[in-house]
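Show me any protein, fold above all:
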Amino acid sequence: MASAFVFPGGGTEADEDARTAAARELFEEAGVLLARVAAPIDVATLDVPGQAHLRRQILGGARAQDTLADAGLAWATEPLLPWAHWITPSIEPKRFSARFFVCELPEAQVPSFDAVETVDQIWVRPAEAIARARELALPPPQLRTCWELAQHATVDDVLEAARARSAEPHPILPRRAAGAATDAPCLLLPWDPDYLEGGIGDAAPLSYRPRWAVGPSRFILEDRKWSHVGAPGSMTAG
């Protein structure tokens, strides 16, 4: 059983940039292929493998780029638009620098899990995901991203916002609030008023104020559920 629902993702491999890694992980974990025809294929002499077969080969250990090339395909990463860059707090024993992207689901493709890379899947609107945060065990980056996505009414609005956000790529490095109880930790985001003076660990303070750095500025873990809330005294609702 999954411990938490997260977006498809994983580490980069040799010679991969962040977008290519995102496209590969999307295919491996969700079965959604972002690819284009890279070379003419003689269909009279070559049996072109189906998408499911390509996925099985890659999950079986074949190098993804070579597998696609053998099928006359190449990654099409242009639809992936940068959304956010999260860095794991320094208080954690294992840290990650995670890039988040958004894109529109290619026509006729249906996400699917394989019980290996992923063991379950759910398709929900952002507002519903927030309402089910405890059930889905959403970690802070997923919870914040759902909050941000919920501010937009349509996919086109999301993509337009992503294009604007790509010009403001400030990293998000949460800090643990000083004095927060062990059983109820509080994480501060860079635009929280207590981030610099009241936080513990490495910091990435805002060198400018991105337009997306608005809304709730902290996370509180209570009864195994992260809540995305505003700082005390702020006018922002969680």
Remarks:
- Residues 43-47 have pLDDT under 50 and may be disordered.
- The longest strand covers residues 81-87.
- The two ends are 29 Å apart (CA to CA).
